[in-house]
């Protein structure tokens, strides 16, 4: 059943409200900008696609148009952060942090300044643009950097809160956002804290702990509900912060269930699945399945079609849960 | 514009440049690795910066209204460490810890390790962007300090730096000065053979910068160029400083093999240290 203390939306399963997580960034950046004059927003010729245009409209003097130059985007942001500004620098995740990874590593992470890299149009949900624009490696790229916080919001509301939290983080942050409108699962009352995972679905005797991140997370809740009808109990935990990982919550959920499924719209290498596998292998080795993109690139198509093609639909989650239960029992 | 620099002041800067070079040779001989030519050829400019141009306070490295000096080509940081030590940021003896375990004087500069550094740098081509971002931020807050950024010629082969040049030109960052060490060498050879940069001054002008070409070993020309830049309100300024790689040590001057490396091959060995210091003394007497 839905975890009451998570204060999730009541209409999750019936006609949920929908929005892209990038819209949450648009709102959150304006709210953060009102609270703190140090905040600036930079974009690389993508003001509208990144929803940075909301901030541009509210605070034109603190909005910086960088042109199509992602290396300069990151390094100018680094310089502004050295000065004492709090820059959110935005472009598509395939280029930011895809193209400017070294600049982020040197001038933001080794330098350890408070600059926030916002990677938009992350994941398969980017749809028709095809493989080049569907960033599926960004979590791995950012997770490997010391000092970096890595955030992947599950919906637009969580993205709004994450943006507000990132504005106060005091060190480098990477946030990934998606284009597609997806169900809004959380509410203004849902607690949010960087590094604190949210148990969204609980069961009396969970057989599998599902850990999910990003805007496809609703599929895990829908799967949990379907599995319940079949008499299979699971828990679902939204790991919105992949680094630092909420080790206590994840270990507690994993140990209680005795088997684990991770779910993300990212390569199976180096993302949420990798992070949790690294945690479990040291503390509680358990049967585990990692759901994600299986070492392939994306392609053009509607988001829905791609989710099925890459094995991330509800039927795939249900099958994977059953598979890991079988492994546990064998 | 500031008052013209006096002969006495020029002499003082030149004497400090000699001391800075001496320390560079000593620190490289002890470290056994690093870079030689660039630090030596930028000694006159770093001496002029720390002993005349910059508003700064070695006892209070983070004071708010200081001028900012970014070093984009982080590998020439021995000249900065040496200049900072001679200016009183830390004891000159600490220079001999360069590149050693536990030292604040990292092989490439790390902002968090040593007060007085403005950025972390080394990977080429991104320092001017940081300086430009800093200058832009300072302008939002109507700050009056100047932002200087030392760059190498070779790093102008990086795409990132042209993005920065375009950005600073677009936003008319008149509080920003780029100083290019035009020593004509890089690791694999002379820049015009590895990847031609000329006409570099015209390229900057085409990107809407004010360009001043100087002899990078003439401290009067350099300080006057800094004064001129202060008076240019509609553009950022490039000081294109023509230098001789390895300046001050006649046996390596202009030789790209002394860009950097190991003992006897890019940095002075313990045996070469003595002959380099002798050559340096000779050049100073001249």
Number of DSSP strands of chain B?
10
Shape of chain A: globular
Total tally of structural domains of chain B: 1
Topology as H/E string of chain B?
HEHHEHHEHEEEHHEHEEEH
The strand line-up of the biggest sheet of chain B is 2-3-4-8-7
Give the CATH architecture of chain B. Answer: 3-Layer(aba) Sandwich
The residue ranges of chain A in which pLDDT falls below 50 over 5 or more consecutive positions are: none
Helix content estimate of chain A: 25-40%
**What is the helix content of chain B?**
40-55%
Query: What's the shape of chain B?
Result: globular
The CATH class label of the largest domain in chain A is Alpha Beta
- N-to-C order of helices and strands of chain A: EHEHEHEHEHEHEEEEHEEHEHEHH
- Give Rg of chain A in angstroms: 19 Å
Tally of alpha and pi helices of chain B: 10
Main sheet record of chain A: 7 strands, mixed
Kindly give the count of domains of chain A: 2
Number of helices of chain A: 11
Question: Keyphrases for this structure?
Answer:
heterodimer, A: 330 residues, alpha/beta, Rossmann fold, 2 domains, seven-stranded mixed beta sheet, five-stranded mixed beta sheet, 11 helices, 14 strands, globular, B: 286 residues, five-stranded parallel beta sheet, 10 helices
Structure description:
The complex is a heterodimer of chains A (330) and B (286). Chain A has 330 residues and is an alpha/beta fold. Chain A has helices at residues 21-35, 52-58, 70-83, 101-110, 138-143, 156-166, 218-229, 247-257, 272-283, 303-309, 314-329; strands at 18-19, 39-43, 63-65, 86-92, 116-120, 149-151, 173-176, 182-183, 198-201, 208-212, 234-238, 241-243, 260-267, 288-293. In chain A, the strands form three sheets. Chain A has a seven-stranded mixed beta sheet, sandwiched between helices. In chain B, the strands form three sheets. A five-stranded parallel beta sheet of chain B has the order 2-3-4-8-7, sandwiched between helices. Chain B has a three-stranded mixed beta sheet with strand order 1-9-10. Chain B has a two-stranded antiparallel ribbon with strand order 5-6. Chain B has 286 residues and is α/β, with parallel strands linked by helices. In chain B, strand 7, helix 9 (219-231) and strand 8 (237-242) form a beta-alpha-beta unit. The radius of gyration of chain B is 18 Å and the shape is globular. Chain B contains ten helices and ten strands. Chain B has helices at 7-31, 37-41, 43-53, 77-87, 127-140, 159-170, 191-194, 200-206, 219-231, 270-285, and strands spanning 34-35, 68-71, 147-152, 176-182, 185-186, 189-190, 210-215, 237-242, 260-263, 266-267. The two termini of chain B are 32 Å apart. Chain A binds chain B through residues 40, 61-62, 64, 66-67, 69, 71-72, 75-80, 82-85, 87, 102-103, 106-107, 110-112, and chain B through 70, 110-112, 118-123, 125-126, 129-138, 140, 159-160, 163-164, 166-167, 170.
């Amino acid at each position: 059943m839905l975890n009451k203390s998570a204060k999730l939306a009541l209409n999750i399963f019936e006609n949920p409200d929908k929005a892209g997580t990038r819209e949450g960034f648009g709102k959150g950046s304006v709210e953060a900008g009102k609270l703190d004059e140090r905040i600036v927003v930079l974009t690389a010729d993508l003001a509208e696609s990144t929803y940075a245009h909301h901030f541009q409209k509210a605070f034109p003097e603190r909005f910086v148009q960088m042109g199509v130059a992602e290396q300069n985007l990151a390094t100018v942001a680094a310089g502004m952060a050295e000065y004492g500004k709090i820059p959110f620098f935005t472009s598509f995740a395939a280029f930011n942090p895809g193209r400017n990874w070294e600049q982020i590593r040197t001038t933001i992470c080794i330098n350890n300044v408070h600059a926030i890299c916002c990677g938009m149009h992350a994941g398969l949900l980017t749809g028709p643009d095809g493989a080049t624009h569907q960033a599926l490696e960004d979590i791995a790229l950012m997770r490997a950097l010391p000092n970096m916080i890595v955030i992947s919001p599950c919906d637009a509301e969580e993205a709004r809160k994450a943006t507000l939290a990132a504005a106060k983080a005091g060190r480098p942050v990477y946030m990934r956002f998606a284009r597609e409108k997806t169900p809004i699962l959380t509410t203004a009352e849902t607690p949010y804290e960087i590094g604190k995972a949210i148990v969204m679905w609980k069961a009396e005797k969970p057989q599998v702990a599902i850990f999910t991140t990003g805007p496809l997370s609703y599929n895990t809740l829908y799967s949990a509900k379907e599995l319940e009808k079949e008499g299979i109990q699971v828990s679902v935990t939204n790991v919105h912060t992949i680094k630092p990982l909420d080790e206590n919550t994840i270990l507690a959920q994993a140990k209680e269930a005795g088997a684990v499924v991770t779910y993300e719209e990212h390569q199976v290498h180096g993302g949420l699945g990798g992070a949790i596998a690294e945690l479990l292998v040291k503390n509680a080795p358990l049967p585990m399945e990692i759901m994600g993109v299986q070492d392939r690139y994306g392609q053009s198509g509607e988001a829905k079609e791609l989710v099925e093609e890459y094995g991330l639909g509800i039927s795939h989650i249900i099958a994977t849960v059953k598979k890991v239960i079988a492994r546990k029992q064998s | 514009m500031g008052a013209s620099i006096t002969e006495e002041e020029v002499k003082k800067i030149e004497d400090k440049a000699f001391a800075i070079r001496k320390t560079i040779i000593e620190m490289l001989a002890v470290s056994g690795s690093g870079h030689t030519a660039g630090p030596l050829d930028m000694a006159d400019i770093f001496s002029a910066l720390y002993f005349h141009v910059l508003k700064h306070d070695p006892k209070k490295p983070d004071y708010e209204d200081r001028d900012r000096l970014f070093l984009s080509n982080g590998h020439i940081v021995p000249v900065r460490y040496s200049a900072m030590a001679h200016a009183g940021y830390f004891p000159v003896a600490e220079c001999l810890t360069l590149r050693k375990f536990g030292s604040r004087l990292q092989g490439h500069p790390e902002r968090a390790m040593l007060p007085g550094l403005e950025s972390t740098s080394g990977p080429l081509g991104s320092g001017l962007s940081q300086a430009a971002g800093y200058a832009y931020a300072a302008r939002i807050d109507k700050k009056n300090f100047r932002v200087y950024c030392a760059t190498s010629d070779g790093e102008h082969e990086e795409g990132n730096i042209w993005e920065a040049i375009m950005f600073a030109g677009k936003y008319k960052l008149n509080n920003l000065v780029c100083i290019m060490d035009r020593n004509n060498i890089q690791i694999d050879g002379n820049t015009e053979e590895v990847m031609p940069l000329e006409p570099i001054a015209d390229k900057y002008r085409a990107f809407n910068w004010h360009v001043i070409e100087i002899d990078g070993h003439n401290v009067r020309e350099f300080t006057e160029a800094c004064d001129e830049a202060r008076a240019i309100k509609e553009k950022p300024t490039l000081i294109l400083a023509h230098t001789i790689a390895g300046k001050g040590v006649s046996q390596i001057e202009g030789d790209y093999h002394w860009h950097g490396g190991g003992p006897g091959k890019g940095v002075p060995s313990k045996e070469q240290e003595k002959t380099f210091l002798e050559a340096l003394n000779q050049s100073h007497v001249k």
